[in-house]
Amino acid sequence: MNKRVLKYFGHLILFWMIFFSVDRLLFLIYNLDTPGLSFFQLIEPFWRALRLDLSAACYLIIPTFLLWLIGLLIPIRSVSLLLKVYFFIFVPILVLGVVASMEIYSEWGYKLNRDAIDYLKYPKELWASSLNSPLGLLLIIYLTSTILFTKWGLHIAGKFQNFSNISSGLNGKKLIKNVGIAITGFIAFLVCIRGGIQLAPINQSFVYYSNNPTLNATAVNTVWNLIYSYSREDHKNSYQFFTTDEIESKFNKSKETYTNTPKIFSMQKPNIIMIVLEGVAAELFESMGGRNKYTSNMDRLIKNGLLFDQIFATETRTDRGIVSILSGYPSLPLISLVKQPDKAAKLSFLPKHFLNNEYETVFFYGGESEFANIKSYLLNAGFNQIIDKNDFDKKDMNSKWGAHDHIMFKKSLSELKKLTEPFFATILTLSSHEPFEVPIDPILKGEDRQTLYKNSIIYTDESVGRFMSSIKEEPYFQNTIFIFISDHGFRMGDGHNRYPRRYHIPLFIYGDPLGKKWRGRKISVIGSQTDLAKTILNQFDLNYNGFIFSRDLLNNVYGNAFYTFNNGFGLIEEEQSVIYDHDSKSVTYLNNFVSDSVNQFLFDKGRAKLQKTYQDFIDR
Questions:
Q1: How far apart are CA 90 and CA 82, in angstroms?
Q2: Which pLDDT value is given to residue 27?
Q3: How many Cβ atoms sit within 10 Å of the Cβ of residue 64?
Q4: Residues with Cβ within 8 Å of residue 204, at least 6 apart in sequence
């Protein structure tokens, strides 16, 4: 490739990388309120941000990249002028965004995004809100940065007068060569924007690394964050069925009744290990009606544990399930909360409650924690440590998703030994995720999806069995409770993707601190993943006020489960289940022997919950 072209892109990328570094430095100086940080801690956000900065730089040079592509075919003699226009437009606007982001974070706790830009619709209110800001200082920063970077940009523009020497024109041989260069450049450009060739495109999780939210915000590229916020759908509550008073009425008329919460543990501060099973369906368990021994190890634990056999997932994906389990928050149609860190950061978090109660907290996953932006959610949730694929040997990355379950459990054992009691640990399995690769000879013969899935469950169950056998030898075992729950279910046999069977998941508790009278018992109250948070917090007399959609399964005599799919919901109660498709406005009742009045009550209750939950999300 022409050295002049490499120099052209090199200058542009260097310009924006330094621009972002200056932005980061100003942001850090303006917002950091944590004393005693070392020099290394202060500079860490800069190198953590390099990949995201490079991705943002590639977004910003799209106009100049297109200019170069055109120049490969058509002689362009006014490159310098076009570049000057480019810098005159981009620099003042982006410096304004940089300065605004400094103050926005100081006031609102998040960086410049589309929600902040939307406030430009209200200039009077915006001006009133800004009056307490140091406007003089911000103006000086803006003018100084704009002048310096514009001057530098114009200097760069002066170095490139035209692209006439690289244009192919009608020269056939040169045209073929330039097409090859264009394709190579285009691929490299896409890889740059994507942030690499890893499984998940780059997102905020790739730069989140600290329990200090300001350091994480410093590492997030301001321009990239703004671009990302505009890639999200505009959230308006399209589920407007009732007035606010009517919604509260639907909830207050619920049949849910409560008793005094029994205490099921023999100690007040046990260690907690939560094992989140990837896509394990309830019907595979013999304890829950399964006819085959797919989960023999976990079934043995259930015989000495406490089983909740009527629990349902809130959706069909891990990123939704994790939020429901750790934040007690329902899933919403078409939305993944973890992909919107500004919203997710305002949730309540089960791990953070234990962290604030002097627990150590750690999350284990054999895969890429940045996938679907889950890492940013986990750090906001209060996990001191996140152990993921970056902490495993390369030889252990032996599946499409990362380290297989038996390796991940082995790693968890070695890391748990380093923790100080009490601790709260969450382990997320992965081997039962498609394509259902397992490192053992298949027990069941067949290559169809159902058989591959069942073989993966058998392997995960064996991994759990070995883990539990090993952990019994650890000194902290007798002080530890184990909570097993799936992140979502699986479509078994001829099951329908929108029917309750698809969402039915296991939830059981095991461990020495579990009271003897609770061992081997089954609780059949209908419940959801969202109910785990309040159930656990209530046991240890911890505040659960922020978990507004969670219920205590141990004092709830009559419960229900709410789940969502593409643009609709399901609501399960003891005598009836309703499925509603908002696109087609169709309603399906699964029990034909229930009165119309009961059906209508349940349908209204489901719609009210969908409307209320969606509005709560918008308002965060």
A1: 12
A2: 94
A3: 18
A4: 52, 220, 225, 228, 341, 373, 376
Mind giving me the DSSP string for 352-394? Answer: HHHHTTT-EEEEEESS-TTGGGHHHHHHHHT-SEEE-GGGS-G
Tell me the C-alpha to C-alpha distance, in Å, between residue 465 and each of 231, 265, 290, 298, 299: 43, 23, 18, 7, 10
SS3 505: strand
Q: What is the pLDDT of residues 332-358, one digit of tens each?
A: 987 889 888 888 999 999 999 999 999
Which residues, at least 6 apart from 512, have a Cβ–Cβ distance to it below 8 Å? Answer: 477, 478, 479, 480
C-alpha angle 145-148-153 in degrees, rounded to nearest 5: 115
* Chain Cα centroid distance, residue 458: 28
Number of other CB atoms surrounding residue 118 within 10 Å: 10
pLDDT for residue 196 = 86
Q: Measured between alpha carbons, how far is residue 155 from residues 17, 67, 90, 276, 376 in Å?
A: 16, 18, 15, 56, 39
pLDDT given at position 403? 95
- Exposure string of 242-259, with b = 16+ CB inside 10 Å and e = fewer, is beeeebeebeeeeeeeee
Element (H, E) at 524: none
Contact 546/348 with Cβ under 8 angstroms?
yes
Phi, psi angles (nearest 5°) of residue 554: -90, -10
Q: Please give the distance of CA 48 from its chain centroid, rounded to a whole number.
A: 19
Q: By the 8 A CB rule, do 318 and 372 touch?
A: yes
Q: What SS3 class is residue 571?
A: strand
Residue 571 and residue 321 in contact, taking contact as beta carbons nearer than 8 Å = no
AA letter at 193: I
Alpha-carbon Rg for the chain, nearest whole angstrom, is: 28
Looking at residue 475, the DSSP 8-state letter turns out to be T
- CB atoms under 10 Å from CB of 15, counted, come to 20
| Measured distance CA(521)–CA(595) in Å, rounded | 33
pTM: 0.80
Contact 329, 549 (CB under 8 A): yes
Q: Which two tokens stand for residue 189?
A: 């450009």
φ/ψ (deg, to 5) at 552: -85, 115
CA distance 476 to 473: 9
Length of the chain: 620
Give the dihedral sign, CA 79/83/89/93. positive
Question: Which residue bears the tokens 């009606």?
Answer: 289
Contact status, residue 432 vs residue 449, Cβ threshold 8 Å: no
Distance in Å from the first CA to the final CA of the chain:
50
What is the reported pLDDT for 198? 81
Cα separation, 342 vs 619, whole angstroms = 12
Q: What is residue 485's predicted lDDT score, i.e. its pLDDT?
A: 98
Name the token pair of 382: 């209060």
CA distances from 352 to 274, 356, 384, 550 (A): 14, 6, 9, 16
Burial of 165 (0-12, 13-18, 19+ CB in 10 A): exposed
What pLDDT does 106 receive?
Answer: 79
| Res 494: pLDDT | 80
| pLDDT score of 141 | 96
Which residue stretches of the chain have pLDDT < 70?
1-2, 4-5, 115, 119, 121-122, 124-126, 128-132, 161-174, 232-235, 251-259
Residue 258: per-residue pLDDT: 53
